[in-house]
TrEMBL record:
<feature type="transmembrane region" description="Helical">
    <location>
        <begin position="310"/>
        <end position="331"/>
    </location>
</feature>
<keyword id="KW-1133">Transmembrane helix</keyword>
<dbReference type="GO" id="GO:0016491">
    <property type="term" value="F:oxidoreductase activity"/>
</dbReference>
<dbReference type="Pfam" id="PF03916">
    <property type="entry name" value="NrfD"/>
</dbReference>
<dbReference type="InterPro" id="IPR052049">
    <property type="entry name" value="Electron_transfer_protein"/>
</dbReference>
<keyword id="KW-0472">Membrane</keyword>
<feature type="transmembrane region" description="Helical">
    <location>
        <begin position="7"/>
        <end position="25"/>
    </location>
</feature>
<feature type="transmembrane region" description="Helical">
    <location>
        <begin position="173"/>
        <end position="193"/>
    </location>
</feature>
<feature type="transmembrane region" description="Helical">
    <location>
        <begin position="118"/>
        <end position="139"/>
    </location>
</feature>
<feature type="transmembrane region" description="Helical">
    <location>
        <begin position="205"/>
        <end position="230"/>
    </location>
</feature>
<protein>
    <submittedName>
        <fullName>Polysulfide reductase NrfD</fullName>
        <ecNumber>1.8.99.-</ecNumber>
    </submittedName>
</protein>
<dbReference type="InterPro" id="IPR005614">
    <property type="entry name" value="NrfD-like"/>
</dbReference>
<keyword id="KW-1003">Cell membrane</keyword>
<feature type="transmembrane region" description="Helical">
    <location>
        <begin position="284"/>
        <end position="303"/>
    </location>
</feature>
<comment type="similarity">
    <text>Belongs to the NrfD family.</text>
</comment>
<feature type="transmembrane region" description="Helical">
    <location>
        <begin position="242"/>
        <end position="264"/>
    </location>
</feature>
<feature type="transmembrane region" description="Helical">
    <location>
        <begin position="80"/>
        <end position="98"/>
    </location>
</feature>
Length: 410
């Protein structure tokens, strides 16, 4: 491993250690060290869950496209796609643990599962997807495992034609991978859309919008890793062009679905719906502008063939897309939690409803204990735990690329 990779791995290791330390602090002192409370119960952790799930879905969709639709120019990046899918779905399962407060509460899902709960469906689908990603990555690497030494040679299946076996089974698994990749995001979207008290999430476009945003950011993650591994040689330019078009198409579908929902809310919506829109477009107006303009600039960069011939150009375009979709995941929360679902009609008034303040669960004078609004911003504990999980994804990909035959030589 060369020096830049060692330095990167050291930095990732430090962030992972800091994240583990902050999680230990949270376990000791409780959720009070976060900025979440009774009235605003989902924050950075759940936003990151949706973000990592999206990146995972995009990775395996790209790999399965090669065998289902014959996009052979993407074949050198198939292993990277499967690896990114596995790393991100593992991160999705990790980041949800701090949100539970006590990690052993996850056992309740196993000991007392409520099969009608989308949360149980999500746990099942995420585990299946992690297993499928790992199997897919193994099959794709199989032709090169037999030529290695040590443990890699021992785990290689003793088949007569490893390359043919790999192609055959990758083609057979491709439809299941595609369905699973779409499925994990649909189920994750249903977790939001089925929350009865959060009107902001009651929309039929939630699931397709989740899938579109996932395909944009997930493909950008694969493209980012691919350019770092392979560079921008001429033989890969067609693959980068296809990925750029795929990212742009998915992002514009996401924009259409998002603003279509905004227009419907504004046109037919109640005062309640309009107030919800105002939270996103006014109170969080700068963040909303970033979630739209940053990926848009990323698309402009990636669609430019001159930019695609530079490593820095592709990295910049992909990072803008990924950052914009991450902010989009963050903005799922404020409009949902800052609209109090409980109201009462004052005596003598027929058309007026007053929101009923909710106990925040915190006594912190002079702030009110009962609130109707909370300007959430993650604490340093939440940020470092998220940074630790993000570093885990980067470190896992870096080590796998170095130790396993993920990158084809020649």
């Amino acid at each position: 491993m060369d020096t830049p990779k060692k330095i990167s791995l050291t930095v990732f290791g430090l962030f992972m250690a800091a994240g583990a330390l902050m999680w230990a602090l949270q376990l000791g002192r409780g959720m009070i060290v976060t900025d979440m409370h009774n009235a605003y119960s989902w924050g950075l952790y759940v936003s990151a869950l949706a973000f990592f799930v999206g990146n995972a879905a995009g990775g395996l969709v790209l790999s399965s496209m090669i065998y289902m639709f014959g996009v052979t120019s993407l074949k050198p990046f198939a292993r990277i796609g499967a690896l990114c899918a596995f790393a991100n779905v593992t991160a999705a399962m990790l980041i949800v643990l701090p949100d539970l407060g006590q990690p052993f509460r996850v056992l309740n899902l196993l000991l007392h599962p409520q099969i009608m709960s989308p949360l149980v469906w999500d746990v099942i689908v995420l585990n299946l997807y992690a297993g499928l990603s790992l199997i897919y990555l193994y099959l794709l690497m199989l032709p090169d495992l037999a030529g290695r030494t040590g443990i890699l040679k021992k785990i290689a299946l003793p088949v007569k034609d490893p390359a043919g076996f790999s192609d055959t089974w990758a083609r057979r698994l491709a439809p299941f991978s595609l369905v699973a990749a779409v499925g994990i995001h649909v189920v994750t979207a249903w977790i939001f859309a089925t929350q009865g008290a959060r009107g902001w999430w009651h929309t039929a476009v939630m699931a397709p919008d989740f899938v579109a945003a996932a395909l944009a950011s997930g493909t950008a993650v694969v493209m980012l890793v691919a350019v770092l591994c392979y560079g921008t040689a001429e033989k890969f330019q067609n693959a980068f062009r296809i990925m750029a078009i795929f990212i742009a198409t998915a992002f514009f579908i996401h924009l259409f679905l998002m603003y279509n929902d905004f227009v419907i809310h504004a046109w037919y919506g109640t005062d309640h719906a309009k107030e919800t829109l105002a939270i996103t477009l006014q109170e969080y107006g700068l963040a909303h502008a970033f979630e739209v303009l940053a990926p848009l600039l990323g698309v402009v960069l990636l669609l430019n063939r001159h930019v695609r011939k530079t490593v820095s150009g592709i990295i910049g375009g992909c990072l803008l897309m990924i950052a914009g979709i991450f902010v989009h995941r963050i903005l799922l929360m404020p409009a949902a939690f800052n609209q109090i679902p409980l109201t009462l009609a004052p005596l003598g008034s027929q058309n007026t409803l007053w929101p009923v303040p909710i106990a925040s669960g915190r006594y912190n004078p002079p702030a009110d204990t009962f609130v109707t609004h909370h300007s959430y911003f993650p604490t340093l504990v939440e940020i470092l735990i998220f940074a630790g999980v993000l570093s885990f994804v980067c470190a896992l990909i870096l080590v796998a690329v170095h130790k396993l035959p993920v990158v084809k030589e020649g």
